[in-house]
Structure formats: structure tokens, C-alpha cells
Amino acid sequence: MKIGLSIPQLLDGESLRQFVQRAEALGFESVLAGDHIVLPTAGTNQYPYTADGSFARPAEDPFLETMTLLGYVAACTDVIKLGSTVVILPYRNPVVQAKMFASLDVLTNGRMICGVGVGWLEKEFDTLGVPYADRGPMSDEFLEMFKILWTEPEPEFHGKYYQFDGISFYPKPVQKPHVPIWVGGHTRRALRRTVKYGDCWHTTRQTPDFVAQNLPYLHQETERAGRDPASITISLKRSLHFTDIGIGERGSVRTGGAMIGTTQEVLDDVYYCRELGIDQLTYDFRVEGIDQSLQVMEHLADRVLPAAERLG
Question: I need a surface site. Which of 21, 152, 154, 305 has the fewest CB within 10 A?
């Protein structure tokens, strides 16, 4: 069982450097960055992971641009994997986006994870001039383009939203055949997208039981596509709150599927996740500032990470 961390919403480079370097030193598998460009001042009822559709963070919460942030933390680390959880595909030009991931994979000697999603916040799409209703098919087309650009010597593509030919695209990613694609989402369409384009199903804000209930369908579709189900990693991302270490407020964790419990309960949950077929867990901490983030990380590494590593 691998364990990764979501990069906290910190603005100063020194705190971010401390976080990712400590995560690397403690042996976590990965550090992953979320993706928002703008947030609506009027709020939203579209967020899929709260009961009332409200987003768990206020509109003034700062989000550093994802690819810029990954470039910064890449320069601060040596071996830990880096990626997005998840980059919203329609927000950026697909050829430039493919170039960003390929460039970072080269500069990190093959440490990138391309976590992708279709997005959910209509106001953000409107602000960026991207058609919200087309986000699903547009994302599928982008993923097809990524693979072509990353692998073919003379890439060519003719789709509904983008077309290109007569070009070269170098450098190619270090990882072969390409940067691993982790597909976010919790719907059956997201599962089918995983089967067609992905190396990992990276669902967010769900319970382990939800994941287990959807694995038969994922395996069925994988086999139907002629793929080995074992070729797709299963990853679950959710918030983590230890109730027995005196850090953070239990009530601050509002998102669905959160792991809230004592250290022993967190350990039991890790074992349970592995039994269900989950291969990777990504946690975020709803705490204040770098000091509390480091405290929770240290506790997780000391008490939980060794057990997870023994699970393989």
C-alpha cells in the first residue's frame, strides 16, 4: 500500500519546500497538487462531495497555479513522485498541457503523475471561456492527444475540438510509454475513461466501500477492452484527521469520505482499504499552516506508514 500527500494551500515557497522535502525524507510515495484557477464569490451548490453542494473552502482561499507549483516543488525534491490531483483538462490548451507534463517528466527524471479530471465548477469554466457542457468529450479528446504527442514521432490528430499534423513534439517523457495517467471521478463514465486512457483510477472524497462497490464494473469494462484489470492501480484520496493527537478541528473536515478517527482506527482503515483492493491512498490535512501540517505528517509517517509499507 502506497501513501501520498496532497500539497497544502501554502503561499510561501519556504513552507512548501519544507513540506515536500519532509514528505520525501519520510518515505511518502508522492505529493500531489490540486487545481483551481478562480473561485466564485457567491459560492456554489455544484461541489459533488458535500451534502449541500457547497465547496469546503472559502472563495478567497489561495490556489497557486498547478503546473507552476509542480515546477517549483520539482526543483526542491529528488526522488518523490509529483503530480496533480487533479488537473482540470479543459482549462488549458492540450498541446501546451502535454508539453508541460513531458517537460517536467524530463526535468525530474521520470517522477511525474498526470492526474486528470473533467471539472465540476461551471463558473470557473465560464470565466475561462470553456464550454462546461462539453467538458467530458473534450477531456477524452485531450487524453487521446496526450498519448499521441507523448509517444509518436510525427504526431497527428483530427478531432472535434483540436487538430494538428505536420509537427514534431520533443522531448518525449522519460517514463515509457508515457507519463502515467491517473483518472479522477466517481461516475461510471469516469471508470470507462480510466479503462480507455488511464493507468490508475484516482477517485476522491469517497469511502472505501464506495470504491469496492465500483470495482466489479471497472474490472468488467477493463476485461471487455482487452486489458488486464491488474494493469490499473486503484487510488483513493480523502481528508485525514487524527482525533487523538490534538491538532486541527474535527469540524473543519466537511468533505465526504473523510477518515476521522484515532491512530488505531486510521491503521485499521488502511488494512481494510488494502483488503478491498485499494493500492494507494492520498491524504490531505485540514489544519492551519506549515507547523501543523508537518506535525500531522510526522505522526502519519511514524505510526501508519510502516504498516502500509508492509502490506506491499
Answer: 154
Amino acid (1-letter code) at residue 97: Q
**Cβ neighbours of 156 (radius 10 Å):** 11
Q: Could you tell me the residue range of the domain that residue 271 belongs to?
A: 2-310
The grid coordinates listed for 40 are 466564485
The per-residue pLDDT for range 140-155, each reduced to its tens digit, is: 999 999 999 999 999 9
Q: Which of helix, strand or coil describes residue 60?
A: coil
All cell numbers assigned to 197: 486512457
Distance CA 71, CA 73 (A): 6
Q: Give the H or E element holding residue 146.
A: helix 135-151
- Residue 11 sits in a domain whose CATH number is 3.20.20.30
**Cβ count within 10 A of residue 97:** 21
Going along 103-232, which residue ranges are E strands? 112-117, 157-158, 163-164, 181-183, 200-204
Q: Is 7 exposed, middle or buried (0-12, 13-18, 19+ CB in 10 A)?
A: buried
* Helix 208-224 vs helix 263-276: crossing angle, to nearest 10: 20
Q: What are phi and psi of 272, to 5 degrees?
A: -65, -45
Whether the pLDDT of residue 252 is over 80: the answer is no
Cβ-contact 79, 196 below 8 angstroms = no
